[in-house]
Design goal:
Length: about 450
């Protein structure tokens, strides 16, 4: 049984409420942090090796230390709760069932950054979770954890929850900041990074929900203790949203370093495939990372055991950071059509492109169009190379990673499942008359 630090109290009845959360030791990290200097708290987070849990895996403590403290400008912590990556639902779970953990993390982290005004930006579709957070914030305020002179320390913090309006792009940190400022959510060019010029041009740290929720444990137990959990540069635990053709879909907290084999097959986790249909493919970290064939699930391309770490999940053959991504683990059996699935993802990215950069605005539309005709049995042999060409012209040519995220799944699908694309264009009648899947391309 691996160690739980985020979901260890999730089954305590009433843990959603302040009273129970506090009785279970909640808000101790704020008490402890307020007796430390902000820089000491930053040091603990640095020592922990905690990496950004939104998808990019950037070291959180390093990001915090980039924040400009010399300019004298107000600083902000913004929690990215705009969880929209297809296949990812772990932040929702955390906020819905243990909201005070995020509030506690926000207070402790804001103190470390010297922020007196912080925000949680939550996607509009999570309206019921927004209400849960609002209630938790009101409870925390009544108990003296927010507002002026928190617990008599002299530290002030205002915390607001802001609702997005249904745009995936607003999960990109600079688009999120634009949206929070009341503008259309178009990503900004980086640098400058938000740590230098973010919300209202003030130094701003944007961190994912899960990252911020890990801070209370780190402050309570020390960064060094956190760094003992996990393996190598993948320290700590990670929430994984698991879906698809598995026995036990849901949200899991795993210790980084767990083998993918154990995660897939042990009854403590996914429990294996949901039926006797064989595994065909999997997406380890949400729709923005490459789909991989079954033969790459348990072993890396080098033949090593595949682990649930940033490093081990990184040989998709594309310029991705890590395929651990946002932890959206999607499993497909052989009844799934890779072309249909890729078209579905492309439809999503085309719809969600903000339209600012032409390779993404135009390219995602072309990807969707060509994939749709292949999927519906009207594709041409040259369409496969055309798709490859389009995706290669999007990748790396846009302001934000949405373009890459649209390109990589297409490239990976062609690279690993080209025979399935060829089957679609060579046997259009079979495609038109088939059931919803292709079992034996
Ligand atoms: P990124 O690698 O550009 O940045 C990561 C973080 O590090 C950012 O906060 C950035 O400001 C900071 N950073 C990097 N270099 C810096 C420097 N020199 N100085 C100061 N700060 C610096 O990646 P990004 O765009 O934040 O995230 C991309 C990832 O997001 C993808 O890998 C994807 O997996 C994930 N994603 C997650 C979604 C979700 O719903 N959780 C949705 C869509 C994508």
């Amino acid at each position: 049984m691996s160690q739980k630090i985020l979901l260890d109290k999730i089954n305590v009845p009433g843990i959603k409420t302040y009273e129970v959360y506090r009785r279970e030791g909640g808000y101790a990290s704020v008490e402890k942090a307020l007796k430390m200097t902000p820089d000491e708290v930053v040091e603990e987070v640095k020592t922990s090796g905690l990496r950004g849990r939104g998808g990019a895996g950037f070291p959180a403590g390093m990001k915090w230390s980039f924040i400009d403290k010399k300019s004298g400008k107000p600083r902000h912590l913004v929690c990215n709760a705009d969880e929209s990556e297809p296949g990812t639902f772990k932040d929702r779970f955390l906020m819905e069932y243990i909201p005070h953990l995020l509030i506690e993390g926000m207070i402790t982290s804001s103190y470390a950054l010297g922020a007196n005004l912080s925000y949680i930006y939550i996607r509009g579709e999570y309206m019921w979770v927004y209400k849960i957070l609002e209630r938790a914030i009101a409870e925390a305020r009544n108990a003296g954890w927010l507002g002026k002179n928190i617990q008599g320390s002299g530290y002030d913090l205002e915390l607001y929850v802001h609702c997005g309006a249904g745009a995936y792009i607003c999960g990109e940190e600079t688009a999120l900041i634009e949206s929070l400022e009341g503008k259309r959510g178009n990503p900004r060019i980086k640098p400058p990074f938000p740590a230098v010029s973010g919300l209202w041009a003030n130094p701003t740290v944007v961190n994912n929900v899960e990252t911020i929720a890990a801070v209370p444990w780190i402050v309570n137990n020390s960064g060094a203790e956190y760094a003992k959990i996990g393996i190598g540069r993948s320290t700590g635990t990670k929430l994984i949203s698991a879906s698809g053709h598995i026995k036990n879909p849901g949200v899991y907290e795993i210790e980084l370093g767990l083998s993918v084999y154990e995660f897939m097959n042990s009854d403590e986790y996914l429990g294996g495939m949901s039926s006797d249909r064989p595994l065909k493919a999997f997406v380890p970290g949400g729709s923005s990372v490459p789909v991989l064939p079954a033969n790459l699930i348990y072993k890396t391309a080098n033949g090593e055991d595949r682990l649930m770490t940033y490093e081990s999940l990184s040989d998709g053959g594309f310029a991705t950071g890590s395929m651990l991504g946002s932890g959206g683990f999607i499993v497909y059996n052989d009844t799934s059509c890779i072309v249909r699935n890729t078209w579905n993802f492309s439809r999503f990215y085309h719809h969600e492109s903000c339209g600012q950069c032409s390779p993404c605005r135009e390219g995602t539309g072309w990807l969707e169009k060509v994939l749709h005709r292949i999927e519906t049995g009207t594709g041409r042999e040259e369409d496969i190379d055309l798709l490859w060409d389009i995706q290669s012209k999007i990748e790396g040519n846009t302001i934000c990673p949405l373009g890459d995220a649209a390109a990589w799944p297409v490239a990976a699908a062609i690279r690993h499942f080209r025979d399935e694309f060829e089957y679609h264009v060579r046997f259009p009648e079979k495609i038109k008359n088939r059931d919803h899947f292709v079992a034996e391309p």
